[in-house]
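Morning!

As promised:
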Amino acid sequence: MSFEVKDKDLLGRIGKLRTKNGLLETPAFMPVVNPLLQTISPRRMKREFGCEVIITNSYIIKSHFGELPGLELHRFLDYDGVIFTDSGAYQILIYGEVGVTQPEIIGFQKSINTDVGVILDIPTGWDEPRSRVEYTVRETLRRAKEALPLISDSDILWVGPVQGGRHLDLVAYSAQKIAEMPYDIHALGSPTEVMERYNYPVLVDMVMTAKKNLPLERPLHLFGAGHPMMFALAVAMGCDLFDSAAYTLYAKDMRYITSRGTVQLQNLQYLPCSCPVCRSITSQDLKELPKGERQSLVAEHNLHVTMAEMEIVKQAITEGTLWDLVEARAKSHPQMTSAFKKLADYKEELEQANPGFKGHGVFYYDYNSLAKPQVTRYKKQVLSNYAGSQGREVLLLFRAPEYKPFNHYPGFLNVKRKLKQTLNMVEICFFVAPYGVVPELLSETYPLSQFELAEPIDHETTKFTVKNVLDYIKAAKYSKVILIIGYGDLDAMLEDALNSMEVDLRVIKTDSIWSDETVSRISEAYTG
Amino acid sequence: MSFEVKDKDLLGRIGKLRTKNGLLETPAFMPVVNPLLQTISPRRMKREFGCEVIITNSYIIKSHFGELPGLELHRFLDYDGVIFTDSGAYQILIYGEVGVTQPEIIGFQKSINTDVGVILDIPTGWDEPRSRVEYTVRETLRRAKEALPLISDSDILWVGPVQGGRHLDLVAYSAQKIAEMPYDIHALGSPTEVMERYNYPVLVDMVMTAKKNLPLERPLHLFGAGHPMMFALAVAMGCDLFDSAAYTLYAKDMRYITSRGTVQLQNLQYLPCSCPVCRSITSQDLKELPKGERQSLVAEHNLHVTMAEMEIVKQAITEGTLWDLVEARAKSHPQMTSAFKKLADYKEELEQANPGFKGHGVFYYDYNSLAKPQVTRYKKQVLSNYAGSQGREVLLLFRAPEYKPFNHYPGFLNVKRKLKQTLNMVEICFFVAPYGVVPELLSETYPLSQFELAEPIDHETTKFTVKNVLDYIKAAKYSKVILIIGYGDLDAMLEDALNSMEVDLRVIKTDSIWSDETVSRISEAYTG
């Protein structure tokens, strides 16, 4: 197996890809290196920018230098890191066809000693009729199969692309079929156009569909994705490799990349960045440089900020805070927010992939945080392992105190001591947003013992919490519920909702939940 | 006047403060320079980090070097930028008192040629009884008055501090009274402890209370505030100057600052930053350096990221996107989110201060964006200038098309053409989230012509929009409302709400709003 996962968060992972030129850590961004023209040399990319992998186009190299005897890719580009090559498929997307056959371009990639090669797939474009999309899927699969004997003898890693564009059924089919073939890496075709239209919600559906139908143990390359703004989101969905020429193409148009978007250099009165370029010059001086020099510096800045964002993403994976980063980056653009909301549709997949406790408490900012895997997992576990497990007939449901863990709160301990006689007949739980019902003993375990919620909570969070409480009570089948609440919105909405359930409900509404008076009201409610 | 505002966004501004040592651009972060021990020399701070201003402690200098003849601050620190001096007030907060009188420390600040000095105020601590807080307010004001004759003859700018801590009535009083005295700069005392407790919502109330009671034309210094995470929020509230020793104090404890929080170096597997330090070393190598060197590099990183965040904030002001930055940074911690929600309580103040169109469309991410000044301002203007202004009896209220401007949408133009005969009797408007009612002609003006809203919208946004529609209809006093809606949540909630108003309501519910059928249903509703 050429790929090993070292750490995980959501569907994102830190992995090691074994290539014949050494181990490559993922997620990784590969700057596209134009073999004909380089703003930043590959040697500098590795030394000054930390680029351990680059991608170049074997088709262009073949067209211009194919006749050179003994052409070796690493020497040719003066780069000793890992090199991916593209096959000319992108040129097919742009020009309709290329003057090379698949056996030729595979043979050429082998001959120049690339580390990772790709078959000559047929990319799915954006505004294509379904019949054309079907063709790109079918033909890519046919070529992938045709390529197998050609690539089986090499120590190169080979990429098997997934097509289908925004036709999710075709993406699923394409992924299932390519997954059956012995490719080392998969790639999702051509989201470039989706991203140029800021159509990030569609991208979420495309990537998640591909991901669900591909083997988790193979890395996934998101073709042509290079804006740092979407790295966190794409990695969270399980993308491992990214490539783009944006750093240099944008520089040509004097477009300055940030982790929150793109700005025209002329609109920058400041350089909103800590990179070595931006710390060594003012925006005014940068704008006044000769065009070539200015373009180089913008490209360097763009590459710095792109590489740094991937480090930010990797650090978040190790901390288990990738969701929080995605949530922050979702504020870059309304379409990024929409994409992030769309990600919540896949909360089951995220929960299944997500590892356990990493030493960090869980943060809830607003309803957008409700799809965090810790909430999804907690609900599953509490319903299947706890609801009704004690066989008690009566539920004593307290509004959770501010103190954590809830069951160590002195006020609670006091009430519990005074309730002693009734205690072995009732089940004691707390309710709290966003989890719902928290059995006493679970309140001292992760994530209940370590979470923070921004106040005040919103309508969606209140509703979500009430539903969680109801689901627990239904599952546990109590004959009586004694609800101890205050005067908040959540308390009121919960009382309303429980009132319409078929259960003997006793409500103790008080502004001193942890008082002796509450104890006697509970005893009354219990015996009455 | 020593302070001139160059650009504005929310209550934030880019200003030029005229000091005797040259112009200082604000908002500015001032690293605290310890006169006894420097991790990064002031000279390097200016050259490599872009620090045009620093702050040091005149009390410590006086204690250690007060006897040196001819001591000149800029030569002493080897720094040719602007220097602020503190007076020993912080030492009063920590040690209870200092061995210096106000005339002595003011005289000393004058003698060493500081650029900006401060009186010997009495800081308000955190856990103090109200009587003590009242004392700090009273005594600071007494000293501020006492200082006036001492400072009137100097070309130094003088800072008049505001005390009161979390007692907002005392903050307001303190601000009103100090505002009456001829100080050049004001400062809000001691939010350090508030920030150490992550009590950001309280900080919002403190700053906004001070700001409302201070003259806008004087800069506001937030004492001891130095974490880049809160710069955007604090600047949005109108803070202009920040100082902190966090960059170096945190480095001593190997704490690594980011714009999203603080991480222990030992917990960093990557360096999530693009600064020159982090781009030139790996986290592994950094951790293995000798302690002194490691501490220096962490301090340098901390200062880089702090300085860069201020550039990010300033660029956002020029773009008019400061709110969006605050919204993104609010995802750093639930307490930052709570503070941001608290900021919405001051939406009137933000709207009043906010400038007009800056060439950028307005983005709405979720209900947290509803307090943006563009929404507040639009509602005021549409209610006072448009509602009922045409004297029409009948309102034709269309669900807005996706197309912008709404009134250029071909479907709308077609319906309008066919409705010709009835047109001079009705007022045509659209409804759209989050603005509410949009009169036809306003739909081609800012911000209606240029905004984007993340879909799907949440409950709070729907409710907010419905309320805006109702307020408009109430203000305009129509006798009949013809509502043309589709089947969305907003449509349904709006229909419900209008149903309970006292108006002749005709609802046309359709999935083809812009069809000929709609035209004939409108004519029926109009005449019927």
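The CA atoms of residues 485 and 491 of chain A lie 6 Å apart.

Hope this helps with the figure draft.
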